[in-house]
Recover the amino acids of this structure.
């Protein structure tokens, strides 16, 4: 049975779509058959990050409405085997995501794939609720700043009560924390919350820490998931997170300030 | 009457006792008797804080309604009841209507003092209860012992937890943007960053204990202090919040 994983945050712009693309690609690179689904109906972005925007014919809402079947709508990734993308509809709104429709589509995906990654839209409205409703587990993406942490906290509360599992009395779905845009230098200067600060507030397990990195921006702009840039710090950090997600133990990297050598200090790095 | 007879009578009356006590009662003032409008407003209020509002004893204040036909008043009262409030009386101002009291089965209360125009619970303003003449058995008398409510999950931003009729223990943290309420004491064994309201139905001797206080608001028996009024030195580890007179005190345990 597939694991349905929602990538969520509450707040916008913290890196949900980047993370969805990176985790899905990372899992596929490990040979796990993975589908990544864009729930951001009306503000479609995942296709851009995955670099498949020119191959979209049918979308999630078409499948829900029965205008197309799943096989027609799924886009096979060109770079990574075992990876498929189900794009969102750009011309509709979130109301098109009916509970029955989403359940049916996720059910079909679960039969074929090992992992179904649901890229949640921001907010706590219908789109976000539908993305998490049928999930088995959640990855909460958070930036190390107070508004993002508070929104993640709110989202964790929602995950504890507004999923199918919770409504059936099964309690909260497991959730892990992915801290993105982390800058040890700014933490050092007191401009950013530290990993400990964030964990103290959210009190959930840490899945990974992704450093603030130019590589993420480059990846987004070129439509290549950042994990494929294996030399980059962010790419490696995402691969670590994927490994932990699959049960491996990995030390945390890029979380402390690297001491500058003599020349570094001399020339200001 | 012979002294014996007086004694015998005193003995017989010992089974009951009348007491005059001040009590905190929420006044629900109706601005319309239109059933549909009432339903929307009552439903919305109830949805805001269902745990707090359900079974909340209220006096329905009909004074602001103006002239409304008798049957319509009855319908309006029924709608309030249907939304889950426990009615303990009607207030109608000067034009007291005995038939309404009889038909609704609720005592007519005379309110002295001014009820605030907008006093949404949980921070309802106290209104003086009527003299203890009419039988008011329905008024919430604290139960002998209500089990303490224990919450072992962190209370997240946007969540509200209310321990009705008793104490509340939260073993984790209460996040900023979360709200915990209790009729009795509140204990938080994590950091209290959100709002904590103890003694929400008027228990001024209620306390708030927390392992670390960094709250947005603390309140006891309807008196409160917001974050801005909580000094830096009052924030910190192992804090106790109490009410003395009308002042909220925060001390280290």
């Amino acid at each position: 049975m597939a694991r349905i994983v929602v990538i969520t945050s509450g707040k916008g712009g913290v890196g949900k779509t980047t993370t969805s693309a990176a985790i899905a690609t990372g899992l596929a690179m490990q040979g796990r058959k993975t589908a990544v689904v864009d729930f951001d109906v009306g503000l479609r972005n995942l296709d851009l990050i995955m670099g498949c925007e020119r191959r979209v014919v049918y979308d999630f809402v078409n499948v829900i409405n029965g205008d197309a079947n799943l096989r027609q709508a799924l886009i096979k990734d060109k770079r990574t085997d075992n990876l498929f993308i189900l794009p969102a509809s750009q011309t509709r709104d979130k109301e098109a995501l009916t509970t029955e429709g989403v359940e049916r589509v996720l059910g079909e995906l679960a039969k074929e794939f090992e992992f179904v990654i649901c890229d949640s839209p921001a907010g706590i409205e219908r789109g976000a609720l539908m993305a998490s409703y049928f999930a088995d587990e959640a990855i909460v993406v958070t930036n190390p700043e107070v508004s993002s942490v508070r929104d993640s906290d709110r989202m964790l509360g929602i995950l504890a009560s507004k999923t199918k599992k919770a409504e059936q009395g099964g309690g909260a779905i497991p959730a892990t924390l992915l801290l993105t845009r982390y800058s040890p230098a700014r933490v050092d200067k007191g401009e950013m919350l530290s990993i400990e600060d964030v964990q103290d507030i959210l009190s959930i397990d840490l899945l990974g820490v992704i450093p603030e990195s130019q590589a993420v921006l480059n990846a987004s702009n070129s439509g290549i998931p950042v994990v494929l840039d294996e030399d980059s710090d962010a790419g490696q950090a995402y691969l670590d997170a994927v490994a932990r997600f699959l049960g491996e133990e990995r030390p945390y990297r890029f979380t402390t300030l690297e001491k500058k050598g003599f020349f570094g200090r001399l020339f200001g790095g | 009457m012979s002294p014996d007879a007086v004694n015998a009578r005193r003995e017989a009356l010992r089974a009951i006792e009348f007491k005059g006590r001040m009590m905190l009662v929420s006044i629900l003032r109706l601005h319309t008797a239109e059933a549909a409008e009432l339903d929307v407003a009552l439903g919305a209020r109830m949805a805001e804080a269902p745990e707090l509002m359900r079974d909340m004893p209220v006096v329905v204040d009909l004074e602001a309604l103006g002239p409304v036909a008798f049957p319509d008043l009855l319908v309006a009262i029924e709608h309030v009841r249907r939304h889950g409030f426990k009615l303990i009386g009607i207030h109608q101002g000067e034009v007291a209507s005995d038939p309404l009291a009889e038909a609704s089965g609720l005592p007519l209360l005379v309110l002295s003092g001014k009820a605030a125009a907008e006093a949404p619970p949980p921070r309802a303003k106290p209104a003086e209860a009527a003299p203890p003449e009419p039988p008011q058995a329905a008024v919430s008398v604290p139960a002998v012992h209500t089990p303490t409510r224990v919450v072992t999950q962190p209370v997240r931003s946007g969540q509200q937890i209310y321990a009705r009729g008793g104490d509340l223990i939260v073993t984790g943290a209460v996040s900023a943007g979360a709200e915990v309420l209790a009729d009795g004491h509140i204990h938080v064994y994590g950091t209290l960053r959100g709002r904590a309201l103890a003694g929400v139905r008027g228990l001024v001797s209620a306390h708030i204990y927390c392992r670390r206080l960094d709250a947005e608001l603390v309140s006891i028996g309807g008196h409160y202090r917001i974050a801005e009024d909580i000094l830096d030195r009052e924030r910190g580890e192992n804090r106790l919040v109490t009410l003395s007179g009308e002042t909220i005190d925060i001390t280290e345990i």
Q: What stands out?
A: Confidence is low (pLDDT under 50) at residues 113-139 of chain B.
